[in-house]
Write a structure and sequence with these properties.
Number of domains: 1
Strand order of the largest sheet: 3-2-1-4-5-6-7
Number of helices: 8
Helix content: 40-55%
CATH superfamily: NAD(P)-binding Rossmann-like Domain
Mean pLDDT: 94
Strand content: 5-15%
Largest sheet: 7 strands, parallel
Structural class: alpha/beta
């Protein structure tokens, strides 16, 4: 129970106001396609100035144009390159006039390969992009947020950071996303008293570039529809509310949490 005084019964209630991001600066990595592009659109629609980052700058420019070219900053960046991460955060802070309010760590890679056949170099690469780069970006953005005593970091994890992927073979991806889940807990706990919230969004099976081969294959589709309690994969718009909740003041008393949006997958 809150220690603050309760609101008077006559006070107006606007349950939608906390979800607004007007005047705030939000960074989205991996924004050139799929869920990342959708995340940028949602934050922009909620009023944020968005800084979109990815390696494929031409796709980012198309995204910016589709948003009307206003309140959008395009940054070509490879999150596996430390200097690119540093430049991305510096550009966002400059574009925001010294502020950085929201970071969505969405960039990630993965593939299906048997653990006994996956090279250690590939394993390290997946962990580097999905976990190490996420930590660096969180650290770089977190320093600005700590100074401002306010900010929200949303890490895009996966249900495969909460459960195994078998019969699909994705050891490096599962390991990296499991790391994201526990790193989210730790950063959320460390920075809670400094005004910075760190949470994770764990999507279930959604169509994306990473899952394109599975959705194109009938057996892959059957795998999802058979084992998902809701009997289907997710639509990209079904992540909108969860993203806005974690990014905005609507979740002002939530940190270190991983929110699964998975049609009941991990409840089985």
């Amino acid at each position: 129970m809150s220690s603050s005084e309760p609101a008077a019964l006559s006070d107006p209630v606007d349950p939608f106001s906390p979800f607004r991001l007007d005047g705030r600066v939000a960074v989205v990595t991996g924004a050139s396609s799929g869920l990342g592009a959708r995340f940028a659109r949602v934050l922009h629609a909620a009023g944020a100035d968005v800084v979109v980052a990815a390696r494929r700058v031409e796709r980012l420019e198309e995204l910016a144009a589709s948003l009307g070219g206003t309140r959008v900053t395009v940054v070509a960046a490879d999150v596996s390159v430390d200097a690119d991460c540093e430049r991305l955060v510096a550009t966002a802070v400059e574009a925001g006039g010294g502020r950085l309010d929201v970071l969505v760590n969405n960039a990630g890679i993965g593939e299906t390969v048997r653990a006994e056949d996956e090279s250690i170099d590939r394993f390290r690469q997946v962990v580097d992009v999905n976990l190490s780069a996420l930590f660096l970006l969180s650290q770089l953005a977190g320093r600005h947020m700590i100074e401002a005593r306010k900010g929200s970091i949303v890490n895009i994890a996966s249900i495969l950071g909460l459960v195994g992927s078998s019969p699909l073979k994705q050891a490096s991806y599962c390991a990296s996303k499991g790391g994201v889940v526990n790193l989210t807990r730790e950063l959320g706990a460390q920075w809670a008293r400094k005004g910075v919230r760190v949470n994770a969004l764990a999507p279930g099976w959604f169509p994306s570039e990473m899952t394109a081969e599975m959705w194109a294959d009938e057996s892959g589709q059957n795998f999802v529809t058979t084992h998902c309690p809701m009997g289907r994969g997710g639509r990209e718009d079904e992540l909108d509310g969860a993203l806005l909740f974690l990014a905005s003041d609507a979740s002002s008393y939530v940190t270190g949490h991983t929110l699964a949006v998975d049609g009941g997958w991990i409840a089985r």
